[in-house]
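Researcher: Structure prediction, please.
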Amino acid sequence: MYTRRKFLHFFSTHNISLSKFPHQLNALSQLNPFSKKPKTVNPFRVLPQYSPFSTQASKFPEYEMPSVTWGVIQGRKEKLVSRVIVFDYLKGLGIIPDELQDLELPSTVEVMRERVEFLMKLGLTIDDINDYPLMLGCSVRKNIIPVLGYLEKIGVPRSKLGEFLRSYSQVLHASVIVELVSVVRFLRGLDVEKDDIGYVLQKYPELLGFKLEGTMSTSVAYLVSIGVNPRDIGPMVTQYPYLLGMRVGTVIKPMIDYLVSLGLPKKILARMLEKRAYILGYDLEETVKPNVDCLISFGVRRECLASVIAQYPQIIGLPLKAKLSSQQYFFSLKLKIEPEGFARVMEKMPQVVSLHQNVIMKPVEFLLGRGIVANDVASMVIKCPQLVALRVELMKISYYFFKSEMGRPIKELLEFPEYFLYSLESRIKPRYQRLKTKGIRCSLNWMLNCSDQRFEERLQGNYIETESAGPSFFMGGKLELPRNSVVSEDEEESDDEVLYRRTVS
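Model: Predicted structure follows.
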């Protein structure tokens, strides 16, 4: 400053024009830190590597990049005055700024207006902003646009961005490179498909705020330790991402220990969780334990609890008491099955608790229409509950073959109602023809209740071996019957189950 003054004094006293020394004057002006500098093209000096997350015409054409983010530099007194003006503006919109007292905010109303309008164009309302007013402390250029750009890049639809922010507004404070990218890489490391990342995060956006070395890693490690296949963790997370936020000591382990105490081996539990990960979300004290006590109160034997849960894991999370009461009354009224018989039905096919009553009545009415008395139909259902889930069209075909081709008495169906569960074309007809050719007369049980290899051994034998107990059927999930006959439940298959089947196919 002193040098500049001395230089100007020299020119003024000697009547020398400054225009003759343009280059020297420009050089001196650079020595003055307070001289006015030309505007830079990129005042924020955005690095090239962050360009994928900047707002471009192709990304957010409906928004214009703000020209100012924080306003002008002010002194302490001016800041207080500006804050009052900004707060008055927010209050005029219906926004309560109490939580913003200690937050650094823009110094002008124009910049704050840009933020509010940007958020509202995403679909947020004034109530949404009031639920988390700290989002107003996020710069549109430095925070909001990079985060939204990255979310859209990993699969969150633009139309869902507002809903995503409504669910988890804290994501606006996250660093794309340090935090968001790290969580996505962690999910990919668990074998979550790239196309499913957006779905998983929309379902449980709080994952973006978790520490990788904390709850998420611990939950995965514990599930693997009890026998869950590591390759199934990805589909499990896709189906039910909330398991990554569950604490092992207070949520997962107590649930596993309780189910093991009922007689379920850990290996069976692991298979259950691989297909129905949402079981972990059932509240142990409020739902699971009361449902187990409810099963016992309705006559299910304690030693059968493990089998019941393994066949139909969802039963421990249903509003069970109301369902059991309704079905038990229906079985007693329409099928003439007493509560003790209903308990035996539950032990063999617990899915019956969720069957529509009109579905149950169709096969029952078919059997009654064939001249079978109600008490015998009740005995058949208690012995083979899967009958009430069969399609009547298939039962008719099997029945007419039994009567016309095989020429057997109804009594044999009463003794072996499982006959209706076998495929007519792939098992009943071929085996009947083999027996007819050899001139062998045997019971339905002896003919059908064995593997193909065992059936051939029986045909080659010189004696009729002792008949074994009735067949056992596959456990777990919805009851799948022969010939693609599937139990109909109160609720249709959920999106989670559809997605799970797609991810593991």
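Model: The first strand starts at residue 480 and ends at 481.
Researcher: Thanks, that helps.
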